[in-house]
């Protein structure tokens, strides 16, 4: 591997600790190659010709976020009007309805693509012209912390890169993972049920290419370090465009070795460590988040030893919340929360209740009994939801529920009722109160209903929660305080506004799970400086209920109030009443925004 003069100069100005760390990781990932030469290529790709690393890398700390941080998740074209660029509409919506309350925006893949609503990327360096351009992305990034997707595992089979692979052009001829139909691939864990390999005719004959997610999504081969260099250069370009939070999509499947499960392999974790190390030496404060929709213990491994992801999705939370509120019991939600470790220093949980994909069920495996998961599935199907499956050696199993979250809370196991809004807002209050950073899918913010027309038109279940909204009609709804969308958005914004002013809701503030009986879910949060305590308690049932005030450790001498209702709470006697699905944030400090 030839090292250029520019790469040698980069090495000369690189902190020794960074260069040594890169060399060590690269030597483990690519043991048959020169790690020093690889490190020089990595530095040139990630920092470019003009950039240079900080003299010292950031050390793990709790300073990358605060209680004010949150994210709204949206597609670039969720809002349309047939006249303006969708990114213009998203910018306008953000300024009108989000600014001053919400601080971050995750725009799902905004690149040219061929399928999977953006996750089959054809060009990582361009913005989809049907959405807008880089100037539109940078304008949003100038007002909100921008999260973007790095779809590292695969790209579109119709991309220029893959076309060059088919024609045998260097270096792309070694960019994609191939295998033989004769290989034993029975142990491979996958989120889909179609055949893993797809045959393609290439310049040198038939090749069978690895396709983890769909036959239009061809997997990269990271055993070739040039693939890594390419993605580090893409990350650099995205940072220069204003991206500050990088979502590593489907990263658990990154490294493949025939004869293994091809998920969570050692090299995958080491590549994440390498990206984290590089980000810690950028002048800009970059946060990495891993998207690993897997059982809880596996998901937690992506924190590493404070040296992999800064944030991980709290994937177990959505199915546990759904189970708790449909059944009126905190039994499994409580058990899970008690066993959850606090995020390590410099790390945080990313709390959400639903995403563009729906509610994942794999993270509930081992946390909720299968018969109770089946009951949740049956109930949500009764509310119009759909189910997607994944492939295992022992057969297909439920992978996720595809449903608009608001409709998932249309009722309980007993059927629909008149408490849908209250039940939904309760779910969001829990998301906001827990240790971590809260995130809200745009269709949850707006109480969007199941999009059956989208499913029929597009032919896949996930379309049920990806509706395109006419922006003029949406504005009319939001400007009328009596509409469902306006009521839900207003209620959520008020809770977020209150939350953002509470030091006890810092993403890393102390948390302790309360034991209040199955009808309630509660936990105690304490600010990092110990000046504020909040008892966050939710009634998970459709009945009025109460708890003895003595069941909470309300320290005498402090004036305790419910931050959400403004009501005072007595310390020593009496009952604390809860309406159906009411959440109280009982604090000794009335901090307002």
Automatic annotation (TrEMBL):
Annotated residues for binding of substrate: 116, 154, 247-249, 356-357, 462
Key words, A-Z: Glycosyltransferase, Transferase
Pfam families registered for this protein in UniProt: Alpha-amylase
GO molecular function: glycosyltransferase activity
One of the GO biological process terms: carbohydrate metabolic process
Gene3D superfamilies (alphabetical): Glycosidases, Golgi alpha-mannosidase II, Oligo-1,6-glucosidase, Domain 2
Annotated ranges, domain Glycosyl hydrolase family 13 catalytic: 69-499
Protein's recorded name: Alpha amylase
């Amino acid at each position: 591997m030839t090292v250029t003069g520019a790469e040698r100069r980069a090495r000369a100005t690189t902190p020794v600790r960074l260069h040594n760390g890169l060399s060590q990781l690269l030597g483990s990932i690519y043991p048959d190659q020169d790690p020093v030469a690889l490190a020089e290529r990595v530095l040139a790709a990630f920092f470019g010709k003009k950039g240079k690393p900080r003299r010292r890398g950031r050390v793990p700390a709790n300073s990358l976020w605060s209680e004010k941080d949150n994210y709204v998740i949206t597609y670039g074209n969720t809002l349309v009007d047939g006249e303006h660029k969708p990114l213009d509409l998203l910018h306008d919506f953000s300024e009108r309805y989000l600014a001053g309350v919400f601080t971050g925006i995750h725009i799902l893949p905004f690149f040219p693509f061929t399928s999977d609503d953006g996750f089959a990327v054809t060009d990582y360096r361009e913005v989809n012209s049907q959405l807008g351009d880089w100037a539109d992305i940078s304008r949003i990034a100038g007002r909100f912390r921008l999260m973007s997707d790095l779809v590292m595992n695969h790209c579109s089979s119709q991309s220029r890169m893959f076309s060059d692979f088919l024609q045998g052009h260097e270096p792309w001829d070694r960019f994609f993972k191939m295998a033989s139909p004769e290989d034993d691939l029975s142990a491979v864990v996958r989120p889909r049920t179609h055949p893993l390999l797809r045959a393609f005719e290439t310049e040198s004959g038939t090749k069978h290419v690895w396709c983890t997610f769909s036959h239009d999504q061809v997997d990269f081969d990271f055993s070739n370090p040039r693939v890594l260099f390419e993605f580090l250069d893409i990350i650099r370009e995205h940072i220069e465009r204003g991206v500050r939070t990088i979502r590593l999509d489907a990263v658990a499947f990154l490294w493949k070795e025939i004869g293994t499960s091809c998920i969570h392999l050692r090299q995958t974790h080491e590549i994440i460590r390498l990206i984290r190390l590089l980000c810690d030496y950028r002048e800009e404060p970059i946060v990495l988040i891993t998207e690993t929709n897997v059982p809880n213990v596996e998901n937690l491994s992506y924190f590493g030893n404070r040296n992999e992801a800064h944030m991980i999705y709290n994937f177990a939370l959505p199915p546990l919340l759904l189970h708790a509120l449909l059944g009126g019991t905190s039994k499994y939600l409580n058990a899970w929360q008690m066993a959850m470790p606090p995020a390590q220093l410099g790390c945080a949980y990313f709390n959400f209740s639903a995403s563009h994909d729906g509610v994942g069920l794999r993270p509930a495996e081992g946390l909720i009994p299968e018969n109770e998961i089946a009951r949740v599935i049956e109930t949500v199907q009764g509310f119009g939801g759909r189910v997607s499956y994944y492939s295992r050696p022992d057969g297909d199993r439920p992978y996720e529920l595809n449903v608009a979250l608001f409709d998932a809370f249309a009722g309980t196991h007993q059927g629909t009722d008149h408490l849908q809004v209250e039940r939904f807002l309760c779910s969001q209050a829990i998301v906001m109160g827990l240790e971590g950073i809260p995130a809200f899918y745009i269709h949850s913010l707006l109480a969007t209903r199941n999009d059956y027309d989208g499913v029929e038109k597009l032919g896949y279940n996930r379309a049920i929660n990806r509706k395109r909204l006419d922006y003029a009609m949406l504005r009319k709804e939001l400007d009328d305080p009596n509409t469902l969308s306006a009521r839900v958005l207003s209620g959520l914004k008020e809770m977020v506004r209150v939350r953002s002013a509470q030091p006890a809701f810092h993403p890393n503030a102390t948390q302790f799970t309360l034991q209040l009986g199955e009808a309630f879910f509660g936990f105690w949060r304490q600010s990092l400086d110990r000046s504020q305590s909040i008892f966050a308690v939710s009634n998970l049932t459709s009945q009025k209920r109460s708890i003895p005030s003595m069941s909470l450790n309300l320290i005498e001498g402090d004036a305790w109030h419910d931050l959400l209702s403004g009501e005072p709470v007595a310390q020593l006697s009496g009952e604390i009443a809860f309406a159906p699905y009411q959440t109280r944030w009982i604090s000794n400090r009335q901090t307002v925004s």
